[in-house]
Amino acid sequence: MMQLSFIRGAACALTLAMAATLPQTVQAMTNSTFYGIVVHVSANNLKVQNPKTKETLSFLILPKFNAVYREGKTMQMSAIHSGQYVGVIYDQKALGARHADQIYLLTNANEKISAIKN
After folding, report:
1. CA distances to 11, 23, 24, 59, 105 from 102, in Å
2. Among 13, 16, 21, 73, which lies 20 to 30 A Cα-Cα from 52?
3. Which domains, and CATH codes, for the chain?
4. Which position has the higher pLDDT, 94 or 51?
5. Are the CB atoms for 60 and 97 separated by under 8 Å?
6. pLDDT tens, position by position, 7-30
7. How far is residue 49's CA from residue 21's CA, in Å, rounded to a whole number?
8. pTM, 2 dp
C-alpha cells in the first residue's frame, strides 16, 4: 500500500515537471497593439473600443504604470479620458491576463504608433 502511494506521488510530480517545461503559446510571447476610443479608465483598468469593428478590450493597469505617451512625451495616467483615441501595446504573459505595457494618446483614428515612435 505504501509503495502504491509513493508511485502515484512520483507520477504526479513527473507530470507536473513535464507540464512546466512545455513551450508557451506564441500569443503569450509577443506584444500586440490595439487601437480605439477609451470607454472606461480607472486606476487599475482601461477599456478601449475599436469604432470600426466594435470590438472592446479591457486592459489591466499595473500599480506603478507610467508608460503613457503623447507626441513623444511621457504623460501621467490622469491624462487619459473617456472618448480619446489611444493605441495600446499589450501582452498576456502574466497569468494570461491582458495588461497594458504602453499607452499612446493619439490625435485621430488614422494615426498609428509607428508614426509617433519614429
Report:
1. 43, 26, 23, 11, 10
2. 73
3. 27-117 (2.40.50.140)
4. 51
5. yes
6. 665 554 545 445 444 444 434 457
7. 36
8. 0.70
**CB neighbourhood size of 41 (10 A):** 19
Query: At 93, is the secondary structure helix, strand, or coil?
Result: coil
Q: Which amino acid is at 34?
A: F
Q: Judge whether 53 and 61 are in contact, CB under 8 Å.
A: no
Cell of 13: 510530480
Asked if 69 and 103 count as a contact pair (C-beta separation under 8 A), the reply is: yes
pLDDT tens for each residue of 31-45: 899 999 999 999 899
Mean pLDDT of 35-57: 95
Q: DSSP assignment of 6-64, as one string? A: HHHHHHHHHHHHHHHTSPPPHHHHS-EEEEEEEEEE-SSEEEEE-TTT--EEEEE--TT
Rounded mean pLDDT, 85-94: 90
